[in-house]
Amino acid sequence: MHRVCALGLSNAARPIRRASVRHRSAPSAYPRQDRARSKLREAYARGLDLKAVIGLDAGGSKTRGLLVDERGEVLRRATGAGANVRSVGEEKALANLRTVIDELWPHADVGAVCVGAAGAGRAADRDRLCNAVQLMLPPGVAVDVRHDAQIALRAATDKRPALVVIAGTGSLVYGESASGLSRRAGGYGSLIGDAAGAYTFGMAAVRHTARVFDGIETRGPLAMAISKALQCASVADLIERVHVWPPDVAAIAALADLVGDADEEHDPAARRIIDDESALLASGVTLIASNIRTNDELPAIFSGGAFDAVPRLLTEMSRACAETGPCAVQRLAVEPAMGAARIAWDMLREA
């Protein structure tokens, strides 16, 4: 059973309205995209009766949206700024979500919207966000909100048990057993700290650089890279760049790339940061995998930009999973937003 918010449209809501859309033909080397464009053109000719859903992946740094038809073909993509309520605030998060929805909405008859939201681990948070999104839409459009690990797992596999490790701006380990029970570890948010999340990596690098300026730690590739990226030559400069309100979570998370680069240059500070954060996240992987696994090979899916920024992280998480038993390790090959779109289609089919 899918939890769907059912708040009616208030007088204060500004529902999205369809707009006329101008089209420009563009040659493509991808047949699936060509078919999608053809279907859209046919839908416009019929009065826009092409049924579709919107799946949204609302992360801390970016929001990605997909318009998906009933066969699972992506009709259109949109990208916007982060919409993690705990990172950017409710008002900004909703504005960023609406920007992405507005870009997708006019191109099909949308019957359902599912948002996979980082920072929406509590049911109360999901209900609040669900109601706010419902107010953006016309009556009759089904809306659901899940946390980001659920949509990533749905995008990756229908097999259960299965495990997903999200390491994006923040981090979370989530698993579902063969009986449908779910377990999670982490997902605490930036103020408490998410192990091996890009923001945590970035802040650890900033702290190391501050200690280098004070003469407590030794300057190396990581401190030099952070100093250059933030254009600072002293602790005072560093404080001025970082102490802003609201915090620039995306900018700090982007520094994780420098941690990964410095690790490949054998920088001791970068290696220590990655070792410490990997161990913390691995403890969550070990816990959840041990709780949900059977004797069969456990699908273990890894998703999020921190795995790209810090390549060694994937090796460490794969090792942690394998220590609990056989694991089929894979990077998420499908956009997490596709998992949200599949959940949206489930809502329509079960209605």
How far from one another are the termini? Answer: 11 Å
Q: Mean of residue pLDDT?
A: 88
Based on Cα principal axes, name the global outline: globular
Across the major sheet, the strand order is: 3-2-1-4-5
CATH architecture descriptor text of the domain at 31-154 and 336-350: 2-Layer Sandwich
Report on this model:
This protein is an alpha/beta fold. The protein has a domain at 31-154 and 336-350: ATPase, nucleotide binding domain (Nucleotidyltransferase, domain 5, 2-Layer Sandwich). It is 45% helix and 19% strand. It contains 14 helices and ten strands. It has helices at 31-45, 85-88, 90-104, 123-134, 148-156, 198-213, 221-230, 235-242, 249-253, 256-264, 268-292, 306-309, 312-322, 336-350; strands spanning 51-58, 62-69, 74-81, 109-117, 142-147, 162-167, 171-176, 182-186, 298-303, 327-331. The chain has a five-stranded mixed sheet. A five-stranded mixed sheet has the order 8-7-6-9-10, with helices on both faces. A hairpin with a 3-residue loop joins strand 6 (162-167) and strand 7. Helix 6 (198-213) packs across helix 7, helix 10 (256-264) packs across helix 11 (268-292) and helix 11 (268-292) packs parallel to helix 13. It is globular, with a radius of gyration of 21 Å. Residues 6-14, 17-30 and 43-47 have low confidence and may be disordered.
